[in-house]
Amino acid sequence: MVALLRQHHFVLNMDLRTRRHSGMILQLAVLLWCSHGAIGKDSCDGPLVSNLPQSSFRSSSQLSNSHGPGFAKVNRRDGAGGWAPVESNKYQWLEVDLGERTEITAVATQGRYGSSDWVSSFLLMFSDTGCNWKQYRQEDNIRAFTGNSNADSVVQFKLQQPVFARFLRLLPLDWNPNGRIGLRLEAYGCPYKSDVARFDGSSCLLYRFSPNPTSSQTAKDIISLKFKTLQNSGTLIHTEGQDHTITLELHKGKLLLHLRKDKSVSPGPESHMVVSLGSLLDDQHWHHVAIERFSGHLNFTVDKSSQQIQVPAELSPSEINEISYGGVQCHGSQRVMSRRNFHGCLENLLWNDVNVIDLAKQQQQVSITGNVTFTCAEPVSVPVTFAGAQSFLQLPGAAQQQRDGGGVAVAAVGVAISLQFRTWNRAGLLLTFDLQQQAGSLWLYLSEARVRLQVHKAGGYTILVDVTAGFGLNDGQWHSIDLTARRGHLTITVDKEEDSTAHASPSFPVVSGNNLFFGGCPDSENNQECRNPFNVFQGCMRHIHVDNNAVDLIKVQQMLIGNYSDLQIDMCGIIDRCSPSHCEHGGRCTQSWSTFHCNCSNTGYSGATCHSSVYEKSCEAYKHQGNTSGLYYIDVDGSGPIKSQLIYCNMTDKTWLVIQHNNTELTKLKASSGINQHLAYFNYSADAEQLWAIITQAEHCEQEVLYHCRKSLLLNTPDGSPFTWWVGRTDEPQTYWGGAVPGSQQCGCGLQGNCIDSDHYCNCDADRKEWATDSGLLTHKENLPVRWVVVGDIQRPGSEAAYKVGPLKCHGDKNFWNAAFFNKETSYLHFPTFHGELSADISFLFKTTAASGVFLENLGIKDFIRVELSSPTEVVFSFDVGNGPFEVRVETGDVALNDDRWHRVRAERNVKEASLRVDGFPNATQKAPADGHIHLQLNSQLFVGGTASRMKGFLGCIRSLQLNGRTLDLEERAKITPGVRPGCPGHCSSYGELCQNQGRCVEMYNGFSCDCGLSAYAGPFCQREVSADFKPGTSVQYTFKEPYELNRNISTQSSSIYSDLKLRGENVSFSFRSSQSPALLLYVSSYYREYLAVLLNRNGYLDVKYKLQNSRDAEVFRTSVRNLANGQLHRVSIRRLSETVSVQIDQHEREDFNLTSDAEFNAIKSVVLGKVHESGELDPEIARLNSQGFSGCLSVVQFNSVAPLKAALLYPNTSPVVVIGSLAESTCGSPSPANPYPAETTHSLSDHLGTVGTGELIVNAIKSDSALIGGVIAVVIFVILCALAIMARFLYRRKETFHTQEPQGIKPEADSPEYPFHSEPNSQNILSENQKEYFI
User: Fold this and answer.
1) Is residue 82 a contact partner of residue 117, using CB atoms and an 8 Å limit?
2) Exposed (0-12), middle (13-18) or buried (19+): which is 1279, by Cβ within 10 Å?
3) Which of 1036, 1054, 1035 is nearest to 1045 (CA)?
4) Bridge partners, residue 1135, by sequence
5) Whose CB has fewer CB within 10 Å in the chain, the N or C terminal residue?
6) CA distances from 427 to 441, 451, 538, 593 (A)
7) What is the pLDDT of the chain when averaged over all its residues?
């Protein structure tokens, strides 16, 4: 019918182009055909139970004959109106035999008629044989169905996936507390027909295609089947093609799909591909498998799990000639492989809708090897599940079993116990019993995934026997244990393997007492026979034998033998919680019986499921943590699928993201015979998906291209075909060059009209013999980055060229500042439904002055998700996935969140837990229920800033809202929404503290900038030290004011001319590094011959020398910190307020001094760093020091509000500064000058839990060899300096000619408003408006 519909659609489309009326007739025909198909299709929802005889019903017990299971039919009043057991407990069950395998699509329950008996929750089990039951689970996690709330209403459940089974069993979990268990049941579905074949482990079917060469090769091939087995390994399918094979193999309960080239039995890695899917498939239940091949892809499906495989070209399957089912031997003995054949049943073997089993029955195109039968006879295996802490199985021991026919005890001579188990736990008790005659106790248990046996002496902790065997036994596979003890010899064997066997020779008989306890012990105060000092066992057991006699677990279930608690008999309830894995982004999944754990190490992600990225999405985000330029891991889509990438962030005036490629150097080309074109491919440090995400997120991207030429045409303008072009992201040739626009076939000079030849649009197209250049920036983001460059005009004699393609550079993060301002409580933004079924993460920033409000909300029929500010000090993340409302709260204590500052919120919900984090407060986490709904199902619009009810709306700003790594465009939606404005001003209140060292925060529309005009530092946050190395002749002089009246020499006017330059205090700070002493570091002069000098004396002490009165000698204040001329970096801060002078060096205690002369510094002339070249009127002592100049490093020099060194280095043309000698900016002011790469910092992946969030960086270290050599050199230099210092002490003694003063006691720092910092008339702002350092 589908093919016919496609044909009708094709005809319809053709006719619409020609005849409108005929097309309408055909459309009507199609609609009629669809209606017929919909009506004619058999529905699968018929009642299955109502017409069954009473013999089809069984139960654990019945209260009376009239309460029997045969009366448990919905809406029937026969008997007592339904089934009721003798006792109402969790061990009761009701079973229905449908007579044959049936497709079951729904179930319905009802209470017992005319009573207060009903079931409020239950489990649903199914089976083909009435044994080995399997539990039906919704969403792979919910085990319980909700039942009735009264005795009359019918509650029906539509199964998410149909069940194919003959037997149904319902287990009540809860019932009316004022009544008892009462139940009527119905199931809905339809008959199920299938073809089955059974393979015995040495048989197989071989299906050979017809000789028609086109019959086996189609555009789309599908292989599908169902299988069931108790064996954990075996080959299900093996195909042979012309040059390849496909093998589907069951290995340790998992399906492996092998793709091989050239039919190689032992292929290399390049010719073999393996994909794994499914787990625990050896459970003797049917499993569906499908392999779909089309266009270089394979869709591999096992039950409800699917995986799409991109097949490499070298492994792409070609025409298939034959398919073998059940093994490989059918292809001939020369192709026999080491794998075992399949042992079990296969059902509905289909190849492109061809029924292979039906062909085998008819003996057409299918050959049979070995014993293949067309029925499914199943071996009986009764497992038992130990699910909880109270689970145990008690069986009779040797003391009860060893009796003769007259009931007289017979002496036992030993122990022989065997069993099989499977578990995920590394530890747990398997078996324990007391020895006869109270000789002691035996424990057989798992420890560190190994089997361990201990025998303890009675009444103490003395260990008589301690042996271990096996390893890795918590892998979920079935493992066997055999324990035998006879005649002083004890043996324990794991998996029948000699290497996993342990022996002991106890000196006492090992014979069990009255009872054997498996899995655990009864929880009873009076229980003295069973003690469990270990963990309880959680897992499955089967094939339990005691003294070579099989234990009938069905009789145990019927309470005919032994005792038990909290067991699930006749089923194995093990679940593989790692298949499919909920661990994202390559996290490694491990599990126990009840939960799973994700190891996120080295993934770059964190959280219970490795969902959330530990890295920021852009350089802009790192910058706002206060970080400087360096290498950082960038995760452009957060929790999305794109991997993080190590990228260089250049944080200068703008935040540039720089992506290098493999060829950023200039490449020279010369004419060469036989070569017409040169092709260059550029391989970037980020892959294509990462590159495009980065470019899309950025506000601006650019890439420089350069072409040097001599007799080599570039674009062959104006009318010729281009000789050179490049290819970008779109894979289309681009025929424009840097500086021009797409499609122009021009270079930058052509667009600007300044090419060297006006007849051409590129300089190189003038075709001159002289060298020419075309260069510029490519800025059209849709075409970036440059992936290929083809250079064509290099074959002519004399042709020479060179090209260069720079790195890709982008700046601006459109997502980081994307914000909306909500100014009405009833306003909100709406977006499409948020899809976060299994994992949902929400992150955003907000600021508000309101006490409460809803940030976002999304509703479903029952489910919802919401994040809100519930009070000024609390944020609540709430949701419901079907298990009831769930809340996670973060309280901030005394810190109010409505302070009109930006606060960050991160909420995450996954199948394991929900978490919420606000700013740097402790993370709040709530565990998800072990069994329950896991899918978040929403269907309404997503509301941001409010709710659908327009209640509890948010007042304030929301910024950078990201859901599962995708940023919502709040600004664009706000432009068309009343009550909401795009953008949000006022960033300095939150980020102003990032402006350091007297930097001033300046508001901008998107972001802010730091004005460093009053700071001696530079950089985006005024934190980069401005430093320079000085040589003996280097001088930096900053002049405050030229005295225009100086030539007149009028003393009566002098005081008035300079009266505005009087200072009653100074604030001087700088860093220095030098090995020279004595040395003049800084000199401040006056037009009245007053001065301030900061110097190192010959002993390496720092002296501060003031002369503020011509009639008195200079005053010298000597600090107590020794040996400052040691080549280390020292920080000096000098403050004067009137007569008080304070000096602090590094972290040493501040020292205070008092001036005895005039406290006014009159007519400031200049600040000089290094050598003073106008030395005519210098103090003799200063002149002597000045003659030597200064050798060393000066950094971040500040005099009041003036930064003379910064002005000289960064703004020499706009500042009143004169530089004599060589002066260049250096990094000598860095605390670690020995590091040759101080700016190259790396955000280490291994430190993502600590350093990423705080922005701490790891500086590239020097190799240890270099450090060792440097240490030796430093020691030698130190010894030489010490010797020279001692010699100088004796050869050069000179008494000081000026007065010195010792430091006084420490005084409180002056904070008076008269302190002249930045308030003096000469405090000049050396940065103009266009020199401020901005970022956006």
Assistant:
1) yes
2) exposed
3) 1054
4) 1067, 1142
5) N
6) 19, 9, 9, 11
7) 84
β 942-944/956-963 pair status: unpaired
List phi, psi (to 5°) of 903.
-130, 145
Q: Taking residues 1175-1188, report their average pLDDT.
A: 84
If one compares 886 and 1062, the residue with the highest pLDDT of the two is 886
Residue 1078 preceded by cis peptide, ω within 30: yes
- The CA-atom distances, in angstroms, between 275 and each of 244, 255, 328, 740, 1060 are 16, 8, 19, 49, 84
Q: Beta 1079-1086 vs 1091-1096: how paired, if at all?
A: antiparallel
Quote the CA–CA distance of 809 and 806 in Å, as a whole number.
9
| Contact of 1224 with 1101, CB cutoff 8 Å | no
Residue 971 is which amino acid?
E
Residues 6+ apart with CB under 8 A from 482: 417, 418, 491, 492, 493, 496
Cβ 368 vs Cβ 520: under 8 Å = no
Quick one: which H or E segment has residue 772? Answer: strand 772-778
CB 913 within 8 A of CB 926: yes
CB atoms inside a 10 Å sphere around CB 54: 13
Tokens of 1: 């019918």
pLDDT tens digits, one per residue of 998-1042? 899 988 877 888 999 889 999 888 988 999 999 999 999 999 865
Buried b (16+ CB within 10 A) or exposed e, 771-800: ebebbbebeebebbbbbbbebbbbeeeebb
Alpha-carbon distance values, 352 to 41, 213, 216, 257, 299 (Å): 22, 16, 9, 19, 14
Closest CA to 241 of 352, 324, 360: 324
Distance separating alpha carbons of residues 82 and 1095, to the nearest angstrom: 106
CA distance 121 to 158: 16
pLDDT of residue 1059: 37
Mean pLDDT, rounded, for 1283-1303 = 43
- Distance from chain centroid for Cα 396: 53
What single DSSP character describes residue 830? Answer: E
What Rg, from alpha-carbon coordinates, does the chain have?
43
418: phi > 0 → left, psi -120 to 50 → alpha, else beta; which? beta
- Say how far apart CA 580 and CA 578 lie, in whole Å: 5
Instruction: Please name which of 564, 487, 509 lies closest in space to residue 398, comparing C-alpha atoms.
Output: 509
Please report which helix (H) or strand (E) contains residue 188, including its range.
strand 184-191
Distance of CA 859 to the CA centre of its chain: 27
Q: How confident is the model at residue 724 (pLDDT cuts 50, 70, 90)?
A: very high
Residue spans of alpha helices (H) in 722-880? 748-752
Both tokens of 1115, joined, read 């005053």
Phi, psi angles (nearest 5°) of residue 1131:
-105, 125
Of 538, 535, 465, which is closest to residue 507 (Cα–Cα)? 465
| Residue closest to 653 by CA, chosen among 1332, 1200, 1154 | 1332
How many whole angstroms separate alpha carbon 451 and alpha carbon 418?
13
Q: Kindly state the tokens that stand for 902.
A: 């930006």
Measure Cα distances from 9 to 2, 23, 674, 703, 1266 in Å: 10, 10, 55, 49, 77
User: What is the C-alpha separation between 145 and 127, in angstroms, rounded?
Assistant: 18
The whole-angstrom separation of Cα 133 and Cα 169 is 8
Structure tokens at 1323: 């405090």
* Structural tokens at position 1334: 């901005």
Supply the pTM of this predicted model: 0.78
Closest alpha carbon to 714 in 729, 730, 734: 734
Q: Which residue type occupies 518?
A: F
Please tell me whether the peptide bond between 785 and the residue prior to it is cis, using omega within 30 degrees of 0: yes
Give yes or no for residue 331 having a pLDDT over 90. no
Separation between Cα atoms, residue 74 and residue 92, nearest integer Å: 19
- Six-digit token pair at 1170? 């290094």
Question: Contact, 92 vs 171, CB < 8 A?
Answer: yes
